[in-house]
Amino acid sequence: MTTSRLDSGDRIVSALVSGGLVGLLLFALWLGLGVARGGTVADGLKMFGVVPPAPPPIEREPPKPVRNTRPAGEAAPPNLRSRPTELVAPEPIIVPPLPPPPVVAAPVAGPGADASAGAAEVPGPGTGAGGEGNGFGAGGDGDGDGAGDVPPRRIGGRIRDSDYPLEASQSGVSGTVGVRFVVDVDGRVPSCSVTRSSGSRLLDDTTCRLIVQRYRFRPARDVRGRPFRSVIVQNESWVIEEPEED
Protein backbone atom coordinates (compact mmCIF):
# COMPACT_ATOMS: atom_id res chain seq x y z
CA MET A 1 0.00 0.00 0.00
CA THR A 2 1.34 3.30 -1.02
CA THR A 3 0.54 6.60 0.66
CA SER A 4 0.60 9.86 -1.27
CA ARG A 5 1.26 13.11 0.53
CA LEU A 6 0.03 16.51 -0.71
CA ASP A 7 2.32 19.40 -0.47
CA SER A 8 1.30 22.86 0.69
CA GLY A 9 0.55 24.17 -2.80
CA ASP A 10 -1.97 21.48 -3.48
CA ARG A 11 -3.72 22.13 -0.20
CA ILE A 12 -4.22 25.79 -1.02
CA VAL A 13 -5.68 24.97 -4.43
CA SER A 14 -8.11 22.49 -2.91
CA ALA A 15 -9.28 24.99 -0.37
CA LEU A 16 -9.93 27.65 -2.97
CA VAL A 17 -11.94 25.26 -5.09
CA SER A 18 -14.05 24.16 -2.14
CA GLY A 19 -14.72 27.79 -1.13
CA GLY A 20 -15.78 28.68 -4.65
CA LEU A 21 -18.26 25.85 -4.79
CA VAL A 22 -19.81 26.87 -1.49
CA GLY A 23 -20.16 30.48 -2.70
CA LEU A 24 -21.85 29.38 -5.90
CA LEU A 25 -24.37 27.33 -3.94
CA LEU A 26 -25.22 30.22 -1.64
CA PHE A 27 -25.65 32.61 -4.58
CA ALA A 28 -27.93 30.14 -6.36
CA LEU A 29 -29.97 29.72 -3.22
CA TRP A 30 -30.36 33.50 -2.83
CA LEU A 31 -31.57 33.90 -6.39
CA GLY A 32 -34.00 31.04 -6.03
CA LEU A 33 -35.69 32.43 -2.99
CA GLY A 34 -36.10 35.88 -4.66
CA VAL A 35 -35.78 37.90 -1.49
CA ALA A 36 -36.37 41.56 -2.17
CA ARG A 37 -34.74 44.00 0.19
CA GLY A 38 -36.22 47.33 1.18
CA GLY A 39 -39.75 46.58 -0.14
CA THR A 40 -42.77 48.36 1.53
CA VAL A 41 -46.46 47.55 1.45
CA ALA A 42 -48.26 50.13 -0.61
CA ASP A 43 -51.73 49.98 0.96
CA GLY A 44 -53.11 48.08 3.88
CA LEU A 45 -56.29 46.09 3.89
CA LYS A 46 -59.52 48.06 4.21
CA MET A 47 -62.94 46.88 5.46
CA PHE A 48 -66.24 48.13 4.08
CA GLY A 49 -69.76 47.60 5.44
CA VAL A 50 -72.56 47.10 2.92
CA VAL A 51 -75.98 48.44 4.12
CA PRO A 52 -78.99 46.69 2.60
CA PRO A 53 -81.60 48.98 1.00
CA ALA A 54 -84.58 50.10 3.13
CA PRO A 55 -87.85 48.26 2.56
CA PRO A 56 -90.58 50.22 0.78
CA PRO A 57 -93.13 51.98 3.07
CA ILE A 58 -96.38 50.18 3.78
CA GLU A 59 -99.39 52.14 2.60
CA ARG A 60 -102.38 52.00 4.96
CA GLU A 61 -105.89 53.11 4.30
CA PRO A 62 -107.17 56.00 6.48
CA PRO A 63 -109.87 54.96 9.02
CA LYS A 64 -113.44 55.65 8.07
CA PRO A 65 -115.26 58.26 10.23
CA VAL A 66 -117.71 56.77 12.71
CA ARG A 67 -120.95 58.66 13.21
CA ASN A 68 -121.98 59.27 16.85
CA THR A 69 -125.53 58.09 17.37
CA ARG A 70 -125.81 59.31 21.01
CA PRO A 71 -128.32 62.07 21.70
CA ALA A 72 -126.84 65.41 22.78
CA GLY A 73 -126.99 66.05 26.56
CA GLU A 74 -127.42 69.17 28.67
CA ALA A 75 -124.62 71.67 29.17
CA ALA A 76 -122.35 71.20 32.16
CA PRO A 77 -122.97 73.42 35.24
CA PRO A 78 -120.82 76.55 35.52
CA ASN A 79 -117.54 76.14 37.33
CA LEU A 80 -117.21 77.32 40.91
CA ARG A 81 -115.35 80.57 41.50
CA SER A 82 -113.22 80.93 44.59
CA ARG A 83 -113.59 84.02 46.73
CA PRO A 84 -110.68 85.20 48.86
CA THR A 85 -111.29 85.24 52.60
CA GLU A 86 -111.60 88.71 54.00
CA LEU A 87 -108.88 89.58 56.48
CA VAL A 88 -110.31 91.14 59.60
CA ALA A 89 -108.07 92.26 62.45
CA PRO A 90 -109.12 90.66 65.74
CA GLU A 91 -110.39 92.91 68.43
CA PRO A 92 -107.65 93.78 70.93
CA ILE A 93 -107.94 92.21 74.33
CA ILE A 94 -107.84 94.97 76.87
CA VAL A 95 -106.72 93.76 80.25
CA PRO A 96 -107.73 96.09 83.05
CA PRO A 97 -104.80 97.30 85.13
CA LEU A 98 -104.23 95.60 88.42
CA PRO A 99 -105.22 97.62 91.44
CA PRO A 100 -102.27 99.00 93.38
CA PRO A 101 -101.37 97.15 96.57
CA PRO A 102 -102.86 98.60 99.73
CA VAL A 103 -100.65 101.03 101.56
CA VAL A 104 -100.23 100.12 105.18
CA ALA A 105 -100.21 103.20 107.38
CA ALA A 106 -100.19 103.67 111.08
CA PRO A 107 -103.61 104.71 112.41
CA VAL A 108 -102.03 107.49 114.45
CA ALA A 109 -98.85 109.39 113.68
CA GLY A 110 -96.04 108.74 116.12
CA PRO A 111 -94.98 111.44 118.59
CA GLY A 112 -92.32 113.77 117.23
CA ALA A 113 -89.46 115.62 118.85
CA ASP A 114 -89.50 118.63 116.53
CA ALA A 115 -88.75 121.96 118.16
CA SER A 116 -91.65 123.54 116.28
CA ALA A 117 -94.10 120.95 117.58
CA GLY A 118 -96.05 122.12 120.58
CA ALA A 119 -99.39 123.27 121.82
CA ALA A 120 -101.45 125.30 119.44
CA GLU A 121 -104.58 127.37 119.77
CA VAL A 122 -106.27 125.20 117.17
CA PRO A 123 -107.41 121.78 118.49
CA GLY A 124 -105.95 118.86 116.56
CA PRO A 125 -106.03 115.03 116.50
CA GLY A 126 -103.18 114.56 118.97
CA THR A 127 -102.34 111.31 120.69
CA GLY A 128 -103.13 112.74 124.14
CA ALA A 129 -101.81 111.43 127.41
CA GLY A 130 -105.05 111.35 129.42
CA GLY A 131 -108.31 109.53 129.14
CA GLU A 132 -108.89 106.79 126.68
CA GLY A 133 -107.11 107.17 123.43
CA ASN A 134 -105.92 105.22 120.43
CA GLY A 135 -102.23 105.85 120.95
CA PHE A 136 -99.44 103.32 121.09
CA GLY A 137 -99.69 103.15 124.93
CA ALA A 138 -97.45 100.96 127.00
CA GLY A 139 -100.09 99.58 129.37
CA GLY A 140 -103.49 97.99 129.17
CA ASP A 141 -105.07 96.93 125.94
CA GLY A 142 -103.99 98.87 122.90
CA ASP A 143 -104.03 98.69 119.13
CA GLY A 144 -100.28 99.08 118.66
CA ASP A 145 -98.19 97.32 116.03
CA GLY A 146 -97.18 94.51 118.39
CA ALA A 147 -95.12 91.79 116.75
CA GLY A 148 -96.48 92.44 113.23
CA ASP A 149 -95.30 95.04 110.73
CA VAL A 150 -92.78 97.60 111.92
CA PRO A 151 -93.88 101.18 111.11
CA PRO A 152 -91.47 103.69 109.56
CA ARG A 153 -89.25 105.67 111.88
CA ARG A 154 -87.83 109.10 111.15
CA ILE A 155 -84.05 109.24 111.45
CA GLY A 156 -83.29 112.64 109.95
CA GLY A 157 -84.66 115.98 108.88
CA ARG A 158 -86.88 118.45 110.69
CA ILE A 159 -88.64 121.77 110.26
CA ARG A 160 -86.94 124.53 112.24
CA ASP A 161 -88.29 127.77 113.61
CA SER A 162 -86.01 129.58 111.19
CA ASP A 163 -87.98 128.02 108.32
CA TYR A 164 -91.00 130.16 109.15
CA PRO A 165 -91.82 132.07 105.96
CA LEU A 166 -90.88 135.73 106.41
CA GLU A 167 -94.00 137.00 104.69
CA ALA A 168 -96.26 134.90 106.93
CA SER A 169 -94.27 135.84 110.02
CA GLN A 170 -94.49 139.55 109.27
CA SER A 171 -98.21 139.25 108.56
CA GLY A 172 -98.78 137.32 111.77
CA VAL A 173 -100.16 134.26 109.94
CA SER A 174 -100.02 130.95 111.84
CA GLY A 175 -101.85 127.67 111.82
CA THR A 176 -101.64 123.87 111.68
CA VAL A 177 -101.19 122.01 108.42
CA GLY A 178 -102.47 118.44 108.09
CA VAL A 179 -100.23 116.50 105.70
CA ARG A 180 -100.15 113.03 104.20
CA PHE A 181 -96.89 111.80 102.70
CA VAL A 182 -95.45 108.56 101.40
CA VAL A 183 -92.32 106.89 102.78
CA ASP A 184 -90.61 104.81 100.09
CA VAL A 185 -88.58 101.64 100.61
CA ASP A 186 -85.37 103.69 100.53
CA GLY A 187 -86.57 105.92 103.39
CA ARG A 188 -87.14 109.00 101.24
CA VAL A 189 -90.38 110.93 100.81
CA PRO A 190 -91.33 111.07 97.12
CA SER A 191 -94.66 112.92 97.54
CA CYS A 192 -96.62 114.94 100.03
CA SER A 193 -100.17 116.33 100.00
CA VAL A 194 -102.13 118.64 102.28
CA THR A 195 -105.13 116.99 103.94
CA ARG A 196 -106.13 120.05 105.99
CA SER A 197 -105.10 123.59 105.15
CA SER A 198 -103.81 126.04 107.72
CA GLY A 199 -105.61 128.81 105.93
CA SER A 200 -102.39 130.03 104.34
CA ARG A 201 -101.27 128.69 100.99
CA LEU A 202 -97.72 129.78 101.80
CA LEU A 203 -97.59 127.70 105.01
CA ASP A 204 -99.17 124.68 103.29
CA ASP A 205 -96.69 124.67 100.39
CA THR A 206 -93.69 125.32 102.65
CA THR A 207 -94.62 122.38 104.90
CA CYS A 208 -94.83 119.81 102.09
CA ARG A 209 -91.73 121.16 100.36
CA LEU A 210 -89.57 120.86 103.49
CA ILE A 211 -90.90 117.37 104.30
CA VAL A 212 -89.97 116.07 100.83
CA GLN A 213 -86.55 117.73 100.92
CA ARG A 214 -85.47 116.87 104.45
CA TYR A 215 -87.32 113.98 106.02
CA ARG A 216 -85.57 110.61 106.01
CA PHE A 217 -86.95 107.41 107.54
CA ARG A 218 -86.22 103.83 108.26
CA PRO A 219 -88.81 102.26 105.97
CA ALA A 220 -91.64 100.14 107.28
CA ARG A 221 -90.96 96.40 107.28
CA ASP A 222 -93.21 93.36 107.28
CA VAL A 223 -92.94 90.34 109.57
CA ARG A 224 -90.17 88.95 107.30
CA GLY A 225 -88.15 92.14 107.48
CA ARG A 226 -88.84 93.23 103.91
CA PRO A 227 -89.29 97.01 103.41
CA PHE A 228 -92.49 98.31 101.87
CA ARG A 229 -94.10 101.64 101.10
CA SER A 230 -96.07 103.29 103.85
CA VAL A 231 -98.10 106.44 104.40
CA ILE A 232 -97.81 108.84 107.32
CA VAL A 233 -100.53 111.32 108.27
CA GLN A 234 -99.57 114.03 110.74
CA ASN A 235 -99.93 117.72 111.60
CA GLU A 236 -97.32 120.45 111.43
CA SER A 237 -98.02 123.61 113.43
CA TRP A 238 -96.67 127.05 112.64
CA VAL A 239 -96.82 129.26 115.74
CA ILE A 240 -95.49 132.77 116.19
CA GLU A 241 -93.95 133.03 119.63
CA GLU A 242 -94.71 136.34 121.30
CA PRO A 243 -92.02 137.90 123.52
CA GLU A 244 -92.65 137.47 127.22
CA GLU A 245 -93.52 140.60 129.22
CA ASP A 246 -91.46 141.45 132.29
Verbal overview:
The chain is an alpha+beta fold and 246 residues long. The protein has a domain at 149-156 and 170-237: TolA/TonB C-terminal domain (2-Layer Sandwich), CATH 3.30.2420. Helices cover 19% and strands 15% of the residues. Strand 6 and strand 7 form a beta hairpin. The longest helix is centred in the first third of the chain and has 26 residues, at 8-33.
Gyration radius (Cα, Å) is 70 Å
Structural class by secondary-structure content? alpha+beta
Mean pLDDT: 75
Approximate shape: elongated
Identify low-pLDDT runs.
Answer: 128-133, 137-142
Gist of the model:
With 246 residues, this protein is α+β, with helices and mostly antiparallel strands. It is built from 3 helices and 8 strands, in the order H-E-E-H-E-E-H-E-E-E-E.
Q: Main traits of this protein?
A:
alpha+beta; two-stranded antiparallel sheet; 246 residues; TolA/TonB C-terminal domain; elongated
